[in-house]
Structure formats: C-alpha cells, structure tokens
Design a protein that fits this description.
Blueprint (H helix, E strand, L loop, with lengths): L1 H21 L8 H4 L5 H4 L5 H26 L1
Helix pairs in contact: 1-4
Length: 75
Amino acid sequence: MKTALVIIFVIIGVALSAIILMQEGKSQGLGAISGMADTYWSKNRSRSMEGNLEKFTKFAAVAFFVVALVLDVIW
C-alpha cells in the first residue's frame, strides 16, 4: 500500500510541475488598471486550454496534498 501511494505521489508531483510550467503568465500590464484587459478570450477562459489547465492544476494540487496526508498518517 505504501509503495503504491508513493508511486502515485511522485506521478502527481511530476504532472503538477509540468502543468504549472505549461500555463501562461498572468501579467496583463497597465491594461488591467483601466479595464482594457477584458477581452473575448479572458471572458471565455473556462472553455479554453488555459482554463482546462487551471482546473487540472487545482484538482492535482488537492490530490497531491491528500496523498501526502495519507502517506503521513500511515508511514
């Protein structure tokens, strides 16, 4: 059981690192101050590839911490 959880933990950690590196930066420059940063792509972000990466990042982060807690309890 421990070995399987450690392998899952490592796989989730590597996947989480790769997903975070694939995401774009959040710098919008001075356009964010005046509201010019609201574009079609920012409004429909949840349907884009960037939105999917953000959702998977949240899911993978929660899974990473849950597996870490389980490993801490049973180790």
